[in-house]
């Protein structure tokens, strides 16, 4: 009685076009090496921050986080959009205000905070506190961060929308950056923050 069961050893027999087991093993080793090189961790970590606010109290968090991360060896980008662009503007960054209305940590009630001129008063109070404590100014934090390699990006759509003049940004600020670039940067980052 004859059976049509294939001989399993026939599959292992080399044919004229098929590579040998040794050739396949060598190719697997080459591919594993290439994969290891392509996915090797170079030790560098990335942080991506999105800065959307332009008040005095909201300018500090992205700058402090960026400079601190850079000091720890992170590759840092900060994408500034909408009012966050005021932080990168040389003149506007020197006149950022602190809103006293709706801020639950302000030492004045909202009824008083809503009075005309109170934002100026609370801003002056904060500026005095910053000066008395020898806290770095916005300009100093920006310049230090730029020196440490932090990339500050200005949203091109917001530049156009708000009619900013790109020449008025601090030297070293990257302009012409779109949301797609910011998203790609966030996707590649180890830490992503929205401030």
Give the tags.
195 residues; alpha/beta; 8 helices; DsrE2-like; DsrE/DsrF/DrsH-like family protein; DsrEFH-like
Structure in words:
- The structure is a single chain.
- The protein is an alpha/beta fold and 195 residues long.
- The chain has eight helices and five strands.
- It has helices at 8-12, 21-38, 56-71, 110-113, 118-132, 138-147, 156-161, 179-188, and strands at 46-51, 75-80, 151-155, 174-177, 191-194.
- The chain has a five-stranded parallel beta sheet, with helices on both faces.
- The mean pLDDT is 87.
Helices and strands, with pairings:
Elements: H1 8-12, H2 21-38, E1 46-51, H3 56-71, E2 75-80, H4 110-113, H5 118-132, H6 138-147, E3 151-155, H7 156-161, E4 174-177, H8 179-188, E5 191-194
Parallel strand pairs: 1-2, 1-5, 2-3, 3-4
How far apart lie the N and C ends?
Answer: 80 Å
If you compute it from the alpha carbons, what radius of gyration comes out, rounded to the nearest whole angstrom? 28 Å
- Bulk shape: elongated
Spatial order of strands in the largest sheet: 4-3-2-1-5
* Fraction of helical residues: 40-55%
Report on the biggest sheet. Answer: 5 strands, parallel
Helix-strand pattern: HHEHEHHHEHEHE
Structural class: alpha/beta
Mean pLDDT rating: 87
Number of strands: 5
Strand content: 5-15%
Indicate the low-confidence ranges by residue numbers.
none
If helices are DSSP runs of H or I spanning 4 or more residues, what is the number of helices? 8
